[in-house]
Amino acid sequence: MSRVTIEEHVVAGPDSGPYAVTTGGDGALWFTLVHSGQIGRLVPGSEPNLYQAGPESGPTIITPGPDGALWFTEYRGHRIGRIGADGAITGFPLSAGCAPFGIAAGPDGALWFTESATDRIGRLTVDGEITEFPLPVTGAFVSAITAGPDGGMWFTMNQANAIGRIGMDGTVTVHPLPTEAAAPVGITAGEDGALWFVEIAAGQIGRITPDGKIEEFPLPDRSARPHAITGGGDGRLWFTEWGANRVGSITPDGEIEVHDLPTPGSEPHGIAPGPDGAVWTALETGALARVTPR
User: Fold this and answer.
1) Which class does domain 4-293 fall in?
2) Looking at residue 211, what DSSP letter applies?
C-alpha cells in the first residue's frame, strides 16, 4: 500500500462547515463554508481569507469559471454566486425553491448547474443569461455535474439511481445503475476517457464510458459513504469517505487504497487537486486537509 502524508489546516470555526474545495486560476484554493454562508481563499502556507455570501445562502459546490472568477451554488439561497479574485461577490437568482447543488464549466464557455429540488439542469452564461432544461424523471435529486470528454455534461441522479448526460443542445440521456439504491453523488472526468462517480449508499466507486458502459468497484468498507471524487493528476481518482473519516484512491483498473484522516469525525466532503501538487479535501469540522503521497 502506498503511504501518504496528511496535514490539516484550520480555515474556519468548527460550525462553519467547509464543504467543497477547488483550485482557482490565481493559484489559490477556494472553498465553500456551507453553514456560515462564506467563501474562503487559501494560499498554501498563508492565512485564509473569508468572504461573506450571506448567512442563509448555503454555498455548496465551487468551480473555476471561464472568466477567471470562481462560481458557486447557493443551495439555500437558490442562486448562483460569482466571486472575483478581489473577493467581490455577485448573485444570480434562480427559480424559487430549486436548490442548486453541483456546478461546472462547460465546453461552451458557460456554467452548468444542477437544480436538485426541481429536476432541472441549468446553464448560465458569464453575463447572466440563464436557461433551464427539464429532466425526463421526477424526484431525481440531481446532484454533482462535470464536463465529459465527449462534449457533454455528465451528472448524478441521486434518488433516480442513474447517471445522466446533457448535450449542449439540451438533449438528456439517462443511464440506470446496476446496483439498486446506490445513490450516486460526486462525479468527475478521469484521465482514462471515462467518468468516475461515487455511490454513497452502496459503498462503491463507479465508472461509466461515454457510450454508457458501467462498472462498479466495491470499497473495502461498504458503509464508508463515499461523497466526492476528483482526478489527482497522478492517474488515480481520489475520493472522500464521509462516513468513515477517510480519503481513498482508485486506479483505472480498480485498485483501491484508503487512508485514515488524523482527526476523528472530521466529515470529509469535497476533494480537488491543489496548486501545489497535493490533493486537498474539505473537512466540515473547520479545516482543509492536504494529502500527499510519499
Assistant:
1) mainly beta
2) T
| 255 annotated ligand binder | no
Q: Are 231 and 237 in contact (CB under 8 A)?
A: yes
Distance CA 36, CA 15 (A): 7
Which residues touch 116 (CB under 8 Å, ≥6 apart)?
A: 75, 98, 99, 100, 101, 141, 142, 143, 158
* Helix-, strand-, coil-residue percentages of the chain, each rounded to 5: 0, 50, 50
Question: Can you tell me the distance from the alpha carbon of 198 to that of 135, in angstroms, rounded to the nearest whole number?
Answer: 21
pLDDT digits (tens, 9 = 90+) for 19-44: 999 999 999 999 999 999 999 999 99
Query: Residue 282 in contact with residue 291, Cβ under 8 Å?
Result: no
How many other CB atoms are there within 10 angstroms of residue 139's CB atom? Answer: 10
pLDDT score recorded for residue 282: 98
Which residues lie across from 66 on neighbouring strands? Answer: none
Interacting residues of 41 by C-beta distance below 8 A, sequence separation 6+: 24, 28, 29, 30, 31, 48, 49, 50, 51, 87
Spatial neighbors of 185 by CB under 8 A, at least 6 apart, are: 143, 144, 156, 158, 197, 198, 199, 200, 226, 227, 228
pLDDT range class, residue 191, cuts 50, 70, 90:
very high
Residues 72, 31 contacting (CB under 8 angstroms): no
Domain ranges of the chain: 4-293
- Is 227 annotated for ligand binding? yes
What is the pLDDT averaged over residues 141-148?
98
pLDDT(185) > 70: yes
Q: Which residue in 9, 35, 259, 269 is the catalytic one? A: 269
With a pLDDT cut of 70, the percent of the chain lying above it is: 100
Strands 111-115 and 120-124, by their bridges, are antiparallel
**Active-site residue 78, yes or no?**
no
Annotated binding residue 259: no
Q: By the 8 A CB rule, do 93 and 78 touch?
A: yes
